[in-house]
C-alpha cells in the first residue's frame, strides 16, 4: 500500500514521478522531495521555486519545509533567496539535531556551506508579472492574496509517511514575510502512525488555527481524512468570520496511514492530485454541494486550458 496527495494541478508531473518511486518500494522522503522539486523547477508555475513571483522589492524569497513522520524530524527555510530547490535544503535541515528552521541570510549561509545550487530565481516572465501588477495598482504596492503553495503528504510501502511544502509566498509581499508553509502544524504536519495534512492559502489566516495539526489530531481520534478536513476548514473559516468579519482563502489535503485521503476548501476552483496503489495520478476539481466538498475528475479540456493559460506569452502593459 502506498499513496501521495498534493495541492493544485501543478503537482501532477511531480506526483507521477513520485508514484514510480513508491511503486518500486522507494522511500517516502525521496518520493515527496522528487515531486516537490519538479514543481520548483518548472518556470511557468509562478507561485513556487524558479519563476516564482517576487516581493515588493522584486526579489524572490522562498519558503519550504520537510517532515519525517517516523521521527517527527522537521526542517524548514524561510525567505531564502538565490537557491534553486529550497525543499532539498529543508530536508537536509531535518537531519540536524537543532537549528532546524533557518531564515533569510542564515538559511542562505547554511545552503552555501552545504553545497546547494545557487541560482537567480527571478525570471523575465516574473518581471513582466511584477511590472503589470505595479501598473495596475498605479505603483501602490500591495500584496496579492494568492493561494498557490504546493504541499504534499506521502505514504510508502514501508508505512513511512512524509510531508513537504514549497512556495514563493504572496506576490508583492513585504521583504522577509514568511507564511504558514514552513511552519509545523500550520502549513503541514505528519505522523506515520496516523497520517498527515498540508495547507495552501492565506498563511496569515491558516496560522491562526494550526489547521494541519488539527486534521492529524482528528484523524488520530478515528476520523476519516475527508471528515477531518471538512471539520477543520469549516471551523476555522467560521471562527475567523465571527471574530474578524472575514476569512482568507484556505484549502487542506490529508492522507492517513491506511492510504485514505481527503480535501476541503473555502474557495471555488481548487484542484489537487492523488495517486495510490489503486489509483493512477489523477487531478480532481473541488465543488461545494450541500455544505460539503465533492470532487470530480478534471476533464482533458480543463487540463489543456490549465497549461495553455500558464504558458501563454506575456506582454508588458
UniProtKB/TrEMBL annotation:
Q: Name one Pfam family in it.
A: Asparaginase_2
> From which domain of life does this come?
Bacteria
Q: Which GO terms describe its molecular function?
A: hydrolase activity, acting on carbon-nitrogen (but not peptide) bonds, in linear amides
**What are the catalytic residues?**
149 (nucleophile)
Site residues by UniProt (Cleavage): 148-149
Q: Matching PANTHER family, A to Z?
A: L-ASPARAGINASE (PTHR10188), N(4)-(BETA-N-ACETYLGLUCOSAMINYL)-L-ASPARAGINASE (PTHR10188:SF6)
The uppermost taxa in this organism's lineage are:
Bacteria, Bacillati, Bacillota, Erysipelotrichia, Erysipelotrichales
Q: Which organism is it from?
A: Sharpea azabuensis
The name on file for this protein is N4-(Beta-N-acetylglucosaminyl)-L-asparaginase
**Where, in this chain's numbering, is substrate bound?**
177-180, 200-203
| Gene Ontology CC, one term | cytoplasm
Amino acid at each position: 500500500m502506498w499513496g501521495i496527495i498534493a495541492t493544485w494541478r501543478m503537482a501532477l508531473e511531480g506526483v507521477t514521478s513520485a508514484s514510480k518511486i513508491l511503486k518500486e518500494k522507494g522511500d517516502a522522503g525521496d518520493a515527496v522531495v522528487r515531486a516537490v522539486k519538479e514543481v520548483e523547477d518548472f518556470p511557468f508555475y509562478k507561485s513556487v521555486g524558479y519563476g516564482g513571483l517576487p516581493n515588493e522589492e522584486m526579489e524572490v524569497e522562498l519558503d519550504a519545509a520537510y517532515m519525517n513522520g517516523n521521527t517527527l524530524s522537521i526542517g524548514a527555510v524561510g525567505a531564502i533567496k538565490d537557491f534553486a530547490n529550497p525543499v532539498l535544503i529543508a530536508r537536509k535541515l531535518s537531519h540536524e539535531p537543532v537549528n532546524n528552521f533557518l531564515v533569510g541570510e542564515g538559511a542562505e549561509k547554511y545552503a552555501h556551506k552545504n553545497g546547494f545550487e545557487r541560482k537567480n530565481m527571478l525570471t523575465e516572465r516574473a518581471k513582466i508579472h511584477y511590472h503589470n501588477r505595479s501598473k495596475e495598482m498605479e505603483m501602490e504596492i500591495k500584496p496579492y492574496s494568492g493561494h498557490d503553495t504546493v504541499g504534499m503528504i506521502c505514504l510508502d510501502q514501508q508505512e513511512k509517511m512524509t510531508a513537504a511544502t514549497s512556495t514563493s509566498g504572496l506576490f508583492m509581499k513585504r521583504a522577509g514575510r514568511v507564511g504558514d508553509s514552513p511552519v509545523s502544524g500550520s502549513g503541514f504536519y505528519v505522523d506515520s502512525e496516523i497520517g498527515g495534512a498540508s495547507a495552501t492559502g492565506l498563511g496569515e489566516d491558516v496560522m491562526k488555527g494550526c489547521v494541519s495539526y488539527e486534521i492529524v489530531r482528528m484523524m488520530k481520534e478515528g476520523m476519516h481524512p475527508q471528515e477531518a478536513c471538512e471539520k477543520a476548514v469549516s471551523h476555522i473559516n467560521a471562527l475567523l468570520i465571527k471574530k474578524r468579519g472575514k476569512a482568507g482563502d484556505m484549502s487542506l489535503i490529508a492522507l492517513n496511514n491506511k492510504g485514505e485521503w481527503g480535501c476541503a476548501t473555502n474557495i471555488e476552483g481548487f484542484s489537487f492530485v492523488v495517486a495510490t496503489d489503486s489509483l493512477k495520478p489523477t487531478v480532481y476539481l473541488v465543488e461545494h454541494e450541500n455544505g460539503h466538498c465533492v470532487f470530480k475528475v478534471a476533464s482533458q479540456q480543463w487540463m489543456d486550458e490549465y497549461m495553455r493559460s500558464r504558458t501563454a506569452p506575456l506582454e508588458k502593459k
